[in-house]
Write a structure and sequence with these properties.
Strand content: under 5%
Shape: elongated
Number of helices: 8
Radius of gyration: 26 Å
Largest sheet: none
Number of strands: 0
Amino acid sequence: MIRRPPRSTLSSSSAASDVYKRQEWSTLTAEKALHYVFHPSILFTFALLAVSVWETNRGKLVALTASERMRARWYLLNGVIIHILMDGMVGVFKVEPLFAKNYNKLDRRYGSAIGTFEGSTVHIVSLLELFVKGPLCILLYRAYHRGTVSYTHLRAHETPEHLVCRLLLEKKKKHLLI
């Protein structure tokens, strides 16, 4: 006869739910919650979001459709929250033990400790996300709201020196094609 584990009911619980009850989040007090909300990495993230939105809205903005606005906001949140905060600060640098432990549950690649060579490729990719992909996402958000600069607009500000260079390059390109 095969014995099965007991089912979870309101009066009795399984081992899995007991593990869940012992997690640190279940004993979250107001003091701990304030500690996490006012953690420097979280404050930096919110400050970066606020500065990005403020700086973008300072200049002349183009009218965006609803889908363009949603896409621009996705780039901003993806760049700041996912690439910079989660993968960079929490995943690689493990700025807060509870954040890192819970993020490791979501993404197992960040299980190795800082300074070990296990998963060093993951750390390198995450550093690229922190210093390249995150800032590029912020710049894309800005580009959506500011509009792109057209080639005609650039030609309107062309100096005589730039004109000569451009014409020589076009002539050289035509010569190479022949």
